[in-house]
Amino acid sequence: MNPSLSSSTQTQNRKADHLRVCLEEDVQFRQIATGFERYRFEHCCLPELDFSEIDLKTSFLGKSTNAPLLISSMTGGTDFAKTINTRLAKVAQEYRIAMGVGSQRVAIEKPEVADTFAVRSHAPDILLFANLGAVQLNYAYGIDECRRAIDLLEADALILHLNPLQEAVQTHGDRNFKGLLDKINKLCYLLPVPIVAKEVGNGISAKMATQLLEAGVGAIDVAGAGGTSWAKVEGQRAKDPRQRRLGQTFADWGLPTAECLQQIRTRHREVPLIASGGLRNGLDVAKAIALGADLAGLAMPFLQAASESEAAVAEVVELLMAEVATVLFCTGNANLEALRRSRSLQRID
């Protein structure tokens, strides 16, 4: 990394690299799957339902959505990222589904790119998540920066993402995670919106979820292994051979998404819970809901579509909703709560 570049420019360049690598290179987990492949639904041959009456509506953190879908946090900070976020936000508004943006650190450090994140004008009614890296609380960030991130989006909640492996593999990553739990605890009682604790693709264990909830976070996004490997992404970006090797070694590190979800929900019956990490279709979404998730987040399918057009994003949303509705219909459940109660999801190993 060029030491003559400012921190904000380095961050902006990294954002552009992340988009390029994710769209152009193979950065998916290979040895670890999401865990959803270990489950199947019991088919109901006579559902006694009218398909047209299937209801996908739900709510999260007190805000209603038309489907249990979250466009997971991805990007911001560049012209291309602005195009992607705008397309995503317009479709999220059309279908009334939730959306998050990528880390807003670059917007805090370089206010002139704030508009690449500011999607509320395109999506006035949706559940919208601001986003910062929790580790930045050890690098001069505090209540003011968090409020700026929230205010920029007029967000309903703030995601604090937890990414120790990504930072360890990233060249010159921010690796001081000491004392963060106490700082998160203080923020939870100072911010005007709930905090969502989210991993970036390596999973949150039930043990760590308990500590985060005791610290005051309002929701958990498990963001487990099985989808995009950020160790791979950072390894692909690295010029340093050691960092490239680290990315290869830890390419399949993490806890499968379904495992995180099931274990957290077993221990914490009421916590608002998001399942993300490798979900690729509506069947994955339905399995996540049946295992106890309130929302299901997808990133790569939306990124690929948004890089093409707004219409492509809409097609993804419609397909996902049709797939979830088909699961409900073919398991004899009229809505998401009925699916959770039905115990129609069976483990097959």
TrEMBL record:
Gene3D superfamilies: Aldolase class I. Residues 11-104, 181-342 form the FMN-dependent dehydrogenase domain. Keywords: Cytoplasm, Flavoprotein, FMN, Isomerase, Isoprene biosynthesis, Magnesium, Metal-binding, NADP. HAMAP family: Idi_2. FMN binds at residues 72-75, 103, 131, 198, 228, 278-280, 299-300. Pfam families: FMN_dh (PF01070). It comes from Oxynema aestuarii AP17. Its EC number is 5.3.3.2. GO terms for molecular function: FMN binding; isopentenyl-diphosphate delta-isomerase activity; magnesium ion binding; NADPH binding; oxidoreductase activity. It catalyses: isopentenyl diphosphate = dimethylallyl diphosphate. It is found in: Cytoplasm. PANTHER family: ISOPENTENYL-DIPHOSPHATE DELTA-ISOMERASE. GO terms for biological process: isoprenoid biosynthetic process. Homooctamer. Dimer of tetramers. Its cofactor is Mg(2+); NADPH; FMN. The gene is fni. This is Isopentenyl-diphosphate delta-isomerase. It comes from the Bacteria.
